[in-house]
Specification:
This protein is an alpha+beta fold. It is 45% helix and 16% strand. Helix 1 runs antiparallel to helix 2, helix 3 packs across helix 4 and helix 5 packs across helix 6.
Length: 163
C-alpha cells in the first residue's frame, strides 16, 4: 500500500471496539461518523479473527484480505484513500499474543490469493519484517507483553493461557 497523505500510527483494533472508539474520539466529526457507520460490521470481522484463534490455538498468526468495513475505517483514520500497487490488495496480518489480545497490521498482498495457504513461518517472517519497517509496532507489542503479565492479565503468574 502506498503511504497516506496524513500518516497516523497504525493502531490495533480489538473485538470490543475499544480501539475504534479511542481513535474515533480524536477525529473530525465527519470522519468519526464514517467510522461509527461501519463499526458493527468491522467488529464482526475482528470477532471472526477471535474465533479463528479459538479454533486453531496452535496458531499465532492469521493473514486474510481486509474487509470493506476495515478499509473504510482505516481511510477515515488517515483521511485519505488507501491505494495499493497494481496486482496487490489490502490484507490484514493478525498476531495473536494471548487469548483476547491481538495486534493487526495492514499490508499489501497478492490480488490472486486469500492468505489461507500461508504458513506460520511465512507469517512470522512477514510480521518481523513489518516490525522492522515500523518500529512502533514492535514497541507496542513489547508493551502489551508486559501488560499481559500484570495482575488481571491473561498471562499473569505464568497461567495456562501463556504462549
Amino acid at each position: 500500500m502506498t503511504q497516506p497523505r496524513n500518516p497516523h500510527p497504525v493502531l490495533s483494533f480489538n473485538s470490543t471496539g475499544e480501539a475504534t472508539n479511542i481513535i474515533a474520539a480524536g477525529l473530525p466529526r465527519q470522519r468519526r461518523r464514517i467510522m461509527q457507520r461501519v463499526a458493527a460490521d468491522a467488529e464482526r470481522i475482528t470477532d471472526a479473527d477471535r474465533k479463528f484463534f479459538e479454533r486453531f490455538p496452535h496458531r499465532s498468526y492469521r493473514y486474510r484480505r481486509a474487509g470493506h468495513p476495515e478499509m473504510v475505517q482505516l481511510e477515515a483514520v488517515y483521511g485519505a484513500p488507501i491505494i495499493t500497487e497494481p496486482g496487490s490488495v489490502p490484507f490484514i496480518l493478525i498476531k495473536n499474543l494471548a487469548p483476547g489480545v491481538r495486534m493487526r497490521a495492514f499490508l499489501p498482498g497478492p490480488a490472486d490469493e486469500d492468505g489461507s495457504t500461508a504458513t506460520e513461518a511465512e507469517l512470522a517472517y512477514l510480521w518481523h519484517g513489518h516490525c522492522q519497517r515500523c518500529p512502533g509496532v514492535a514497541e507496542r507489542e513489547a508493551q502489551l507483553q508486559v501488560a499481559m503479565r500484570l495482575p488481571g492479565g491473561p498471562m499473569h503468574s505464568g497461567g495456562a493461557e501463556c504462549r
